[in-house]
Structures are given as C-alpha cells and as structure tokens.
Amino acid sequence: MIKFTVSRRQSLFLSAMFLVLPLMCLGKVVYVNHETGDNSWLGVSGKARAPDGPVKTFSKALSLLRPGDTLSIMKTEKPYRERMRLKIKGTAEAPITIEGNGAIIDLGSDISDGPWKKEGDFWSVNVDRKAMKSQWAIAFYRGVPIVMSKSTPFAGYGAEDFLVKKGEDGALLIRFPDGMEPPFTGTYLPGAEKGVMLDNAKYVRIRNLNVRGASNDGFGLHGHCEGIVLENCSAILCGDEGASAHGKSEAEFRDCLFAWNGSSAGGVADVHETVTSYTRCISAFGRGTGFAFKGKKHRLIDSYALGNLRWENAKNSLPKDRVEVVNLVEIPDGPEAYAKARELAEDNPQMKLLVELAKEIHWPEQ
C-alpha cells in the first residue's frame, strides 16, 4: 500500500479549495436596472456607477449569461417595459437563474382617460397596437376581458355590455354598457406580444418575476425547452394565457399565480408534446377554464382554479389519460370565488397577491 504524506500547509490549501470550488461553480451575477443602468457597464454590481454597474436592458444582460450565472433584475419604482426572450442554455449541473426580486414587467397601458371620442354607440381611442386577434382579449375593463366577438356574461356584466372593433388610423372602438362615460377607470390595453418567451431554452430557473399586459402569453415556452422551473411568478391581464407551453417543452411551475387573462382555453394552457407540472398554483378569474392540458403528460397538485368563466369545461380540459390531478380546489365564477381568495390570503402569499391585485385593477366582484 502506498502512503501519502500531506503537510499542514498543503492540508490548509486543499481545505480552502474544497470551500472555494462550489462557489466557483455558482457563476457570476449580472445586474440589470432599466432606471439607473447603462449598457456600456459590466453589470457585475448593483451600484449605479462605472464601470461595474448594472446594464440597462434585458437583451444586453442576457447576452452576458453563461451556465451557472444569475441574472438579478433589480426591483424599481416603475415597471420594466421590455419583453424578455430567453434563448439561453444552462446545464443540469449549472442552470441559469433569472431572479426577479419581485420586479414587474408591464407591457400594457392604462387607457382609462383616453382621450375618448364618441362614435355612435362606441367610444374610440387612438392606440399604438400592431395586432388584434379575435381569440385574444383586446383590452380589459376592471379585469373583464373585452373581445372582438360577442362577450359572455362575466363578473356581473351581460353579453351585450362590451363589444370592440377596429377603427380608422389605429383607433380602438369599445361599446361600454349604457350610460357609462369617460373616464372609464380600470380600462387596460395589453401591449407587446409575449412577456417572457422561452425559445428552446435549457435549464433555466425563473423566480419572483411578475408579468402583466402581454397581448399573447405572459410566460410562453416554445420549441424544445428543457429543465425549466418557474417559482413564485405571476402573469395577469394578458390577452391569451398567463402561461402556455408548446412544442416539446418540459417545465415545472411552483407557487405561481395566473389571473385575469383573456384566453378562451384557460388561464394556463399547454399543448402539443409538452410535459409540465403545476404545484401550489392559482389560475383565477380568466375567460377560459383554470387549467387546460392537451400535451403529452401533465401534473396538477395542490392548486386552485377560482372564478374562471368556463369552469364547467374543467373536466374536458383535464383528460385523465394524460393529466394527474391531486387536490385541485375549483370554485365557479361568482362572488364565492373571491370570498375564498380572501379567506386563504392570510396563509397563502399568492392568494394574498391576488386579493391585492383585485383592488388595484378595480375588480367588480371584490
């Protein structure tokens, strides 16, 4: 047997290496701040000063990431107005982390004050909007989706209360319920197509990030995403789904909130060959059902579907041959759903956020 002798100095050196190596594997932190950042800086410090300070845009920050790195989105007084497209690739051993720190990406705009112009039975407002698709919510009034086809009774409003159509020169025409006049407090227009889009991304963890006002999906997965985990995230007031996985994407969602989204399918809708799981998630007050799964394999655990318009479609949206459901609490559209949210808010952070957001957007059933 061969014996090795290690000096005290060598022993201390090896001990130090064992301590340092795990830290080295963690990678660097890149900071982004749209208010105080500068894209000519290195982004290695959160302090706004050259040359190490935060970068200004998501696109610049994402270009600096490598496996094992973390993007720290600094929470600011005003929301971020830039959508995020993730084509980044971590590894199973060194995933890339997007730490939202509670920041908000808000791509929409409050159009309550217009200026509105009366045109027959409609009120028109000029908006900067590139796409209007009939299957998406074009706008929201106090969280109620306004669509190009005839509306369905929802949150106390009738089928004829809201209609929307295109006007000339980009104008948006909305027929509000009889007797209503500006300002139409709580009228909100979604903006850019997707909030956070993952495009063939690999091993990415997204935490504590809030999206609102995407005209399509709040969080959209496309292609063959793999090793994706979203934790403590939210998506509200999006024209289509709050979250939607496509292609052959694989993802886990934990402790996430999706509310007041305009898809006729569901607040969450996964399709094609996707493999997804949702644990302790909430899908509430949407135009469709809570969760709609038509992919390869799905799990729904300890979650809530509250006050969604097409709640009766839930069974058809959760086929037993591809969806494992464990402890799903579902409450139909109506005041009981919001009452349940208030009841659970004390012990459930995402339910508490749901109640706070209901007040912010002037939800009529609160």
From TrEMBL:
<dbReference type="Pfam" id="PF13229">
    <property type="entry name" value="Beta_helix"/>
</dbReference>
<feature type="domain" description="Right handed beta helix">
    <location>
        <begin position="195"/>
        <end position="288"/>
    </location>
</feature>
<dbReference type="InterPro" id="IPR011050">
    <property type="entry name" value="Pectin_lyase_fold/virulence"/>
</dbReference>
<dbReference type="InterPro" id="IPR039448">
    <property type="entry name" value="Beta_helix"/>
</dbReference>
<protein>
    <submittedName>
        <fullName>Right-handed parallel beta-helix repeat-containing protein</fullName>
    </submittedName>
</protein>
<dbReference type="InterPro" id="IPR012334">
    <property type="entry name" value="Pectin_lyas_fold"/>
</dbReference>
